[in-house]
Amino acid sequence: MLNSLAPFVIAAALAPQKDRTTDAAAIGPQPVALRAAAPLVVQTSALGARRTILMTGYWPPSNEAVRPFSANPAQNPGGWIGQDWEGRGYDVYAYFPEFSPPTCTSCGTGSGDFEVDYQDTSNDFWPIVNALQPIAIITFSRTNASLSWEVEQNQYNNATWTNDYVAPFQPTPAPPDASVPAGTLRLSKLPMAEIVSNVTEANLGLNSFICVSQSAGQFVSGFMAYHGVWYQSLHDNPTDPAWCIAAGHIHVGPAIPWATARKAAEVTLRTVIHYVDSVRDPACQNVDLYCPTSTHSAGPGALLTTTGSTSIAANNLRLIATGTPPGTIGQFFYGSGSSQVAWGNGLLCVPAPFARLLPLNFANANGLVDRALDFTQVPLSGSIYAVQPGSTWNFQFAFRDALGGGANFNSTNAVRIVFCP
């Protein structure tokens, strides 16, 4: 992760610009002219158990990127994966319209939740957020830059918008947010630089950058983007029971394969969760991802992240490797050094000397490896590699990949962790 936005400002200036019109409110805070809409599916199967995160999508592949997080069986017959997703302590819900054909280029209004219509978007949005009370909101839509993962900085309370497909063609009211003047800018509250860095290091072949010179657009996706940051601004106080820490918008390239878009959405979601955790627990969340992952026999790369507190006393930190070959065997190791040198079919990001964490770990059928760290056990305690308050250690996961040929093994990126008492 980079602390400076300068490299991404440059990338935004060089990146292809999207046609914001072909990307072609307010129930709750204020009245709105309504039109008939499809029945809303309020996904409440686990409400109250954990804080929630809301993701929305519009045109493909953005709707397909978030589909596994829909708790609506009609939209996601494979089953909702959002409940306590990856054991990270949050329930994740997704809403999006359907299009015919699903691979459409000129898609029209669509059907279901969040149709490509201003009134339908507002009619759906406020009941959903009032039910979920999300602690974070990530909205997605489509750009015309083929492989872009474009994190939008700017969302405007526009007075005029590009006409949609169903009368009334403009938002009612316009501007949607009467609490601020027309043209008011609301900035993204997502960890933008971290999202760009982590999507890039995930080796997905995407052009990820922050757009600082334009807006999220003046069509329905920009309208939705404004709703997300608007809601966050209404609930930005930590004492609010519906506290919302992060919200923002990402434009997704139309040429991105659906499976890749889903991986990038998951990388984005993990990054947002880590940011939310760091705001909720600022003293014990000092984790940084570094070193690119490498393509292997089962995909573009295996990504190592963490969940839980970096507090030694809490003793609940876990290392999570995703995207490894299903069923593979591997080993976590850690040391004080960092590097980026060729090793096996990937990169060695934690050079010797390092300590190995036994026993070995097996990936599940989805390529996930979940390893709890026990700070009461050797080598994390009682050795020269003991974790102490204020100490910094780097962790990596190496795994067997016989189908990958070459050296027959590969590795994840690495995570740098600063531990607290």
What is the name of the CATH superfamily of the largest domain? Answer: Peptidase C15, pyroglutamyl peptidase I-like
Low-pLDDT segments = 1-47
CATH class of the largest domain: Alpha Beta
Cα Rg: 22 Å
Distance between the termini: 24 Å
How many distinct helices? Answer: 6
Q: How many domains, as an integer? A: 2
CATH arch. level architecture of the largest domain: 3-Layer(aba) Sandwich
Number of beta strands: 20
Order of helices and strands: HEHEEEHEEEEHEHEHEEEEEEEEEE
Structural class: alpha+beta
Helix content range:
10-25%
Q: Tell me the strand percentage band.
A: 15-25%
Shape: globular
CATH topology of the largest domain: Aminopeptidase
pLDDT averaged residue by residue: 89
- Give the strand order, joined by hyphens, for the main sheet: 2-1-5-10-6-9
The biggest sheet, with number of strands, parallel, antiparallel or mixed sense and barrel status, is:
6 strands, mixed
Q: How are the SSEs placed, and which strands pair?
A:
Blueprint: H1 6-14, E1 51-56, H2 62-66, E2 90-95, E3 97-98, E4 111-112, H3 118-132, E5 136-142, E6 148-152, E7 154-156, E8 185-187, H4 192-201, E9 207-211, H5 220-234, E10 246-252, H6 258-280, E11 287-290, E12 303-307, E13 318-322, E14 329-335, E15 341-343, E16 346-348, E17 354-362, E18 369-372, E19 392-400, E20 409-418
Helix pairs in contact: 3-5, 4-6
Notes on the structure:
The chain is α+β, with helices and mostly antiparallel strands and 421 residues long. It has two domains: 275 residues, 3-Layer(aba) Sandwich (Aminopeptidase), CATH 3.40.630.20; 135 residues, Immunoglobulins (Immunoglobulin-like, Sandwich). It has six helices and 20 strands. A six-stranded mixed sheet has the order 2-1-5-10-6-9. The longest helix is centred in the middle third of the chain and has 23 residues.
